[in-house]
Amino acid sequence: MRQRFAAFRRPDAWFPRRGTPRQTPGVRQLFPEPADPVEPLDVYRDLPVVAGRPAVRLNMIASVDGSTAVEGRSGGLGGPADRRVFAALRSLADVVLVAAGTVRAEHYGPAALPIAVVSGSLQLEWDSPFFTAADRRPLVVTHRRAPADEAMRASKVADVVVAGETRVDLVRAVELLGERGFRHVLAEGGPSLNGALAGAGVLDEVCLTVAPVLVSGEAKRIVAGPAVAPPPLLALRSACEEAGYLFLRYRLPQRPAAEPPG
Prior knowledge:
Blueprint: E1 28-31, H1 40-44, E2 55-63, H2 80-91, E3 95-99, H3 100-105, E4 115-118, H4 129-132, E5 139-142, H5 148-157, E6 159-162, H6 170-179, E7 184-187, H7 191-200, E8 205-211, E9 235-242, E10 245-251
Parallel strand pairs: 2-7, 2-8, 3-4, 3-7, 4-5, 5-6
Antiparallel strand pairs: 1-9, 8-10, 9-10
């Protein structure tokens, strides 16, 4: 057991006297190699790569007790360091994949990179700045049985990606994003989409910010839905800290994607 935790040991200089603040501001890396400070962009350049399809990296934030939102929004959990990590992750992605409910709850605005919104019902505000003022035309991922009138409205402000017959097939959706030249997909939730990605076998890395707050309440965990069986054992790739926030990055083992729904 002692050997197992040897990699987390740090030099004495990493343990200041009690009551003495750290002299170096910024994010510090705790694992795999101590570094203080460290640029988040350098930490997260270690991108997952998957043969045959784009790699999907998930970015989420949760409180110490596992809550993903404060008063319905994750923004209440974040801080300056989390925003820098968020920016670094987006800068390394080719496209963001996000559920329509998260777009609405978090009030997504125009972005500098393409954002693919997953929606089966297509109940979105097509005249919002997210669609009308975007630097890059958004994508809407839906299924063939989605409401035809809403699909027509969507096509005027976004590229419509049809993946699945009666519900969104995320395996096919990721494949279609790859056919558009996107190799690195950044998923941003919500928990139900995250659970569906994990269940479909197309989730490759989890980037989790642990916020130093207790929230309680009824908010979901970062992944929601049917249990993943068997639960995959994740490999810790990096651990960083700033101002009490922990930034953890776990790589999932590669496994065959789930069969598309019939």
